[in-house]
């Protein structure tokens, strides 16, 4: 009989421990489950998900998955903004949330040291070090186009002590995947005619850069190559020297490589 109680004690003690905390590789668990290991890792269940909105796997004891279910997904799907990629996911009760950062970006920079704009020359293409983008993910991307434009020199005025200012206008055209996105930019120039007897000279303000940021959001598909370009067309303007068509009357984009136009892509999804 003594042996019977000894055996019963040995059976019940582990059960009591299981109802409290469980320790693996530790005799002093500090939570409901405490896994200890200095040279090994915990392996999540490995599954193949198809869509962040589809459970795919099942709950053996219920009609649906329990929120907090965690898995390691090995699949890459093509479900648009609902696509999945390899990594750890947690089920919220309605969708899978990735537990890793999905970063994807690219910066294209103007390569011409200076582009002299001309109102008579028509559309000019701005050269970049990259003219295509292939996203790593499917979903929304933000494209930020930063441009700079400085107007040319005004016609010299003849009236003494007369200050004259004028605006030069141009149109940028960002073409992405054959779709144009046009926006205007204006730059101001000035001249102050100094006819003092002390021999003062005209004070000229030209090529004063005006920076403009143009933002467009696009839903892109991973592994798809998208091409882009940036063009500029400056207006003729009679208040500028030679109407802005030649000489100092022309404007500038990126004079002496001081400021470059840029086109930046950033993934905005989860």
Topology (elements, then pairings):
Layout: H1 2-18, E1 22-24, E2 33-35, E3 46-47, E4 70-73, E5 87-91, E6 96-98, E7 105-109, E8 115-117, E9 124-126, E10 132-133, E11 139-149, E12 163-176, E13 179-192, E14 203-205, E15 210-220, E16 226-234, E17 251-253, E18 262-267
Describe this structure as you would to a colleague.
- Helix content is about 5%, strand content about 40%.
- It is mostly beta strands.
- It folds into 2 domains: about 1-100, no CATH class; about 105-265, Jelly Rolls, CATH 2.60.120.
- The strands form 5 sheets. Strands 9, 10, 12, 13, 14 and 16 form a 6-stranded antiparallel beta sheet that branches. The protein has a 4-stranded mixed beta sheet with strand order 3-4-5-6, with no helix packed on it.
- It is elongated.
- The mean pLDDT is about 85.
Total number of strands: 18
What is the residue-averaged pLDDT?
A: 85
The ordered string of helix (H) and strand (E) elements is HEEEEEEEEEEEEEEEEEE
- Structural class category: mainly beta
Shape: elongated
Distance N to C terminus: 65 Å
Give the second-level CATH assignment, the architecture of the largest domain: Sandwich
CATH T-level topology of the largest domain: Jelly Rolls
Largest sheet, described in full?
6 strands, antiparallel
Structural features:
mainly beta, four-stranded mixed β-sheet, Jelly Rolls, six-stranded antiparallel β-sheet, 2 domains, 1 helix, 270 residues
């Amino acid at each position: 009989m003594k042996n019977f109680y000894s055996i019963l004690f040995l059976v019940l003690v582990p059960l009591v421990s299981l109802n409290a905390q469980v320790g693996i590789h530790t005799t002093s668990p500090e939570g409901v489950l405490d896994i200890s290991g200095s040279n090994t890792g915990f392996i999540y269940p490995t599954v193949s998900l198809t869509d962040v909105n589809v459970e795919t796997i099942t709950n053996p004891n219920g009609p649906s998955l329990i929120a907090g279910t965690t898995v390691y997904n090995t699949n890459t799907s093509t479900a648009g903004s609902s696509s999945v990629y390899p990594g750890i996911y947690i089920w919220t009760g309605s969708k899978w949330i990735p537990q890793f950062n999905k970063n994807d970006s690219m910066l294209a920079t103007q390569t011409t040291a200076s582009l002299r704009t001309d109102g008579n020359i028509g559309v000019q293409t701005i050269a970049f070090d990259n003219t295509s983008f292939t996203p790593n993910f499917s979903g929304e991307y933000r494209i930020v186009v930063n441009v700079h434009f400085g107007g040319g020199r005004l016609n010299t005025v003849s009236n003494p002590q007369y200050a004259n200012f004028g605006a030069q206008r141009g149109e940028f055209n960002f073409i992405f995947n054959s779709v144009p996105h046009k926006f205007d930019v204006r730059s101001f120039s000035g001249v102050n005619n100094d006819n003092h007897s002390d021999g003062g000279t005209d004070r000229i303000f030209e090529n004063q850069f005006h920076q403009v940021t143009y933002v467009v959001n696009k839903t892109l598909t991973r592994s798809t190559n998208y091409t882009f370009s940036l063009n500029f067309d400056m207006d003729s303007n009679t208040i500028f020297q030679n109407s802005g068509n030649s000489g100092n009357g022309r404007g500038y984009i990126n004079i002496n490589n001081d400021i470059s136009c840029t086109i930046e892509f950033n993934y905005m999804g989860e």
